[in-house]
């Protein structure tokens, strides 16, 4: 049975039950929410009074509106207070005067700390703990001494802080000094201050201009203030403008004095030597100012003019003062500036400026005459654009060798052609920067030729200044020496054409007329006839066959003279003896001959024209390559041979005309003798001619005989007569007899050896 419950326990339980019943019988009404303030709960006490709900909502709505207005007003007041404070602060800043710059130079040091970081500080000061702003921006100049890792001085530099000095340097020098720009925000210069020395006189002149302008402004101001009708200007602006002008003058004056102290010894030496036309090696740099015209003499005493860029003292095994210069050259398409160097070797004491390897043109005693000559030569250089057929007598500069360039003695006709020279010899090409107006450019100055690989014609002529700087060399090909060389322009001259060359050709009239007609027709291209395949078989190919010395080569020379075209004579040895060399060399020769519209003469071409066989594959390759390349050649080609009977039959269809040359008869020999000698001017000329005309000589032998007789007569100081000719003819006759005996003996020995099975 459960234990009886005490009285206290019963009362406690009954009290809890009554509380539960009371709570279960009470229903709480839902609490209303404010319509203006979501989530605001109204207390139950306020709801118990009649009509209190509407009053409460109205009161709450009014309080909310008042609260919003007060907040907006507070924000506006706060904003006004902030603007007022900012305006007040701004007025305070403008009212504070800017500190004036210290018109002096501040000496600083740039070192490395223990961690390898560079820092800038005053001499004797500790490294700064952290990076700070420029504490020395208030000085117009800062001279900095740079130290390396070993705490040794390695460099000095100068920083320009003054805005007035920056403006003056920008105006006076700008970008005229190579390697230094005075248009940058920060101007830093390395010692020695050569750029400022070279423009010291200009800076002094600018200082005088500024002083005069300041004085003139002061006078104008006084006159303006004295006038009754003048409107008064803002006194603050006038005061600031005047202060800026005075400050700029003070800054520039200090810079000029600073430079005069820095270059004190140099200025004294220059003042002592230059009036005497002398210079020392140590101050050689003072007379070479960037942009000046430099006069120099090149190899073989060629005069030239160059534009100086910069100079440096070069130490080492071959010390010298190196001049970096520019001049105008031609790359086959455009005229432009290219660079080179001119060395000046060290010398003791002083030297005449005009004795230097190069010196400013203004020191030349005949400056005007030299300038006129160089400008005229520059015009001739400009006229050599493209390709030109000319005469040349002198030295030609060939490929580069150990001690300079190979030199060739050239006398004869040459072809000036820079474009083909660069194409055949790419290792000798030059790089140029096209002159303004030479290469097509866009609005922003970009070279459209380099961008789009296009070529546009240009007609803008060179100026006199550009002609003054023009090169004294033009590249081309020496036709007799078969060399690609550079020619001296002064040694070039126009060709003196032989108008009677074709008339002096000893040929039957019918053959001469045929050759003339075919050549002239090809030159004019009257019929415009072409093959089924375009560009094929449009050339004029002629074979000249016969014994030596009867006029085969002279025919090609006469045709070239008659058409006023270059004669490009090629021997079989220049083409090579293996198929690859033949194709490369012959392709290049045909390409060049086509470019120049030259008359091509292939002398003694028998080896490439002989009949192909089944056993000699190399010869077959040579003949096949020769046939294929000639098929597409569009120029004039003469082939000479003494063995026409050995030709491959494929050549017969490719030859337009074949001319046979026989031995010279008596009339032909008479014509040849008259071509080389004027017998009418000689005493007993007719008898002399009759005495030599019966000698059976070919044209080449007659020419050699006349040349030798003239040399013999000149050595005796006489005119050519019969005695001189007879001496030469007798010597020649004895040689022919001996030569004939040698040939006869060789043939006899050959037959004997053959009979013995040894041949």
TrEMBL record:
Spell out the Pfam families in the cross-references. Answer: AAA (PF00004), DUF7025 (PF22942)
MF terms from GO for this chain are: ATP binding; ATP hydrolysis activity
Basic residues bias: start-end ranges? 66-78
Q: Where is the composition biased (Basic and acidic residues)?
A: 79-102, 217-242
Q: Where is the AAA+ ATPase domain?
A: 538-665
The UniProt keywords, alphabetically, are: Hydrolase
SUPFAM superfamilies (alphabetical): P-loop containing nucleoside triphosphate hydrolases (SSF52540)
Q: Which Gene3D superfamilies match?
A: P-loop containing nucleotide triphosphate hydrolases
* InterPro entries linked to this entry: AAA+_ATPase, ATPase_AAA_core, DUF7025, P-loop_NTPase
Spans annotated as Disordered: 1-102, 215-242
Q: Which domain of life is it from?
A: Eukaryota
Name by which UniProt lists this protein: P-loop containing nucleoside triphosphate hydrolase protein
Question: What does the organism's lineage look like at the top?
Answer: Eukaryota, Fungi, Dikarya, Ascomycota, Pezizomycotina
């Amino acid at each position: 049975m459960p234990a009886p419950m005490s009285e206290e326990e019963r009362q406690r339980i009954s009290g809890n039950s009554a509380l539960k019943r009371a709570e279960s019988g009470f229903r709480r009404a839902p609490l209303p929410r404010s319509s203006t303030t979501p989530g605001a709960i109204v207390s139950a006490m306020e709801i118990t009074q009649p009509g209190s709900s509407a009053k409460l909502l109205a009161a709450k709505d009014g309080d909310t509106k008042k609260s919003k207005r007060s907040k907006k007003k507070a924000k506006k007041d706060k904003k006004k207070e902030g603007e007022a404070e900012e305006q007040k602060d701004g007025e305070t800043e403008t009212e504070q005067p800017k500190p004036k710059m210290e018109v002096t130079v501040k000496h600083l040091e740039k070192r490395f700390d223990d961690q390898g970081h560079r820092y800038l500080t005053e001499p004797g000061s500790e490294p700064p703990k952290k990076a700070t702003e420029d504490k020395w921006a208030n000085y117009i100049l800062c001279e900095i001494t740079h130290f390396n890792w070993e705490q040794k001085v390695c460099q000095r530099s100068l920083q320009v802080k003054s805005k007035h000095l920056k403006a003056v340097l920008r105006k006076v020098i700008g970008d005229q000094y190579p390697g230094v720009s005075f248009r940058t925000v920060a101007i830093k210069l390395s010692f020695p201050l050569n750029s400022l020395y070279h423009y010291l006189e200009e800076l002094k002149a600018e200082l005088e201009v500024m002083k005069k302008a300041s004085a003139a402004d002061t006078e104008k101001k006084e006159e303006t203030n004295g006038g009754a009708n003048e409107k008064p200007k803002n006194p603050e602006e006038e005061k600031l403008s005047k202060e800026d002008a005075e400050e700029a003058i003070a800054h520039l004056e200090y810079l000029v004095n600073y430079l005069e102290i820095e270059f004190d010894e140099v200025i004294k030496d220059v003042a002592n030597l230059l009036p005497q036309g002398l210079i020392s090696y140590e101050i050689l740099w003072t007379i070479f100012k960037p942009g000046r015209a430099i006069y120099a003499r090149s190899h073989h005493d060629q005069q030239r003019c160059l534009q100086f860029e910069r100079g440096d003292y070069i130490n080492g095994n071959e010390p010298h003062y190196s001049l970096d210069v520019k001049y105008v050259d031609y790359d086959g398409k455009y005229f432009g500036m290219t660079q080179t160097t001119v060395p000046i070797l060290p010398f003791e004491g002083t030297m005449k400026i005009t004795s230097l390897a190069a010196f400013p043109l203004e020191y030349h005693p005949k400056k005007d005459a030299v300038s006129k000559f160089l400008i005229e030569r520059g015009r001739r250089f400009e006229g050599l654009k493209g390709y030109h057929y000319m005469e040349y007598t002198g030295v030609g500069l060939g490929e580069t060798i150990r001690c300079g360039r190979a030199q060739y003695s050239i006398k004869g006709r040459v072809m000036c052609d820079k474009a083909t020279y660069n194409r055949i010899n790419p290792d000798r090409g030059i790089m140029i920067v096209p002159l303004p107006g030479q290469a097509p450019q866009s609005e922003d100055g970009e070279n459209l030729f380099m961008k789009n690989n296009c070529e546009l014609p240009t007609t803008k002529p060179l100026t006199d200044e550009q002609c003054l700087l023009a090169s004294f060399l033009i590249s081309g090909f020496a036709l007799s020496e078969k060399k690609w060389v550079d020619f001296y322009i002064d040694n070039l001259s126009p060709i003196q054409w032989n108008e009677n060359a074709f008339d002096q050709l000893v040929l039957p009239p019918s053959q001469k007329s045929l050759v003339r007609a075919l050549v002239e027709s090809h030159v004019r291209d009257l019929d415009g006839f072409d093959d089924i395949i375009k560009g094929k078989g449009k050339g004029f190919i002629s074979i000249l066959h016969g014994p030596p010395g009867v006029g085969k080569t002279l025919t090609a020379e006469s045709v070239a003279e008659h058409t006023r075209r270059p004669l490009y004579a090629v021997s079989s040895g220049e083409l090579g003896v293996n198929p690859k060399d033949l194709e490369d060399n012959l392709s290049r020769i045909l390409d060049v001959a086509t470019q120049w519209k030259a008359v091509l003469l292939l002398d003694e071409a028998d080896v490439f024209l002989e009949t192909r066989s089944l056993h000699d594959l190399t010869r077959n390759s040579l003949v096949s390559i020769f046939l294929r390349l000639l098929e597409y050649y569009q120029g004039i080609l003469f082939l000479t041979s003494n063995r026409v009977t050995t030709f491959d039959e494929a050549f017969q269809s490719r030859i337009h005309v074949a001319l046979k040359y026989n031995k010279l008869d008596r009339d032909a020999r008479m014509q040849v003798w008259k071509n080389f000698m004027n017998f009418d001017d000689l005493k007993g000329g007719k008898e002399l001619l009759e005495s030599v005309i019966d000698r059976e000589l070919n044209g080449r032998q007659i020419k050699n005989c006349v040349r030798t007789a003239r040399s013999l007569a000149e050595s005796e100081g006489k005119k050519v007569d019969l005695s001189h000719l007879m001496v030469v003819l007798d010597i020649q006759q004895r040689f022919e007899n001996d030569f004939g005996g040698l040939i006869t003996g060789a043939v006899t020995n050959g037959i004997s050896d053959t009979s013995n099975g040894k041949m």
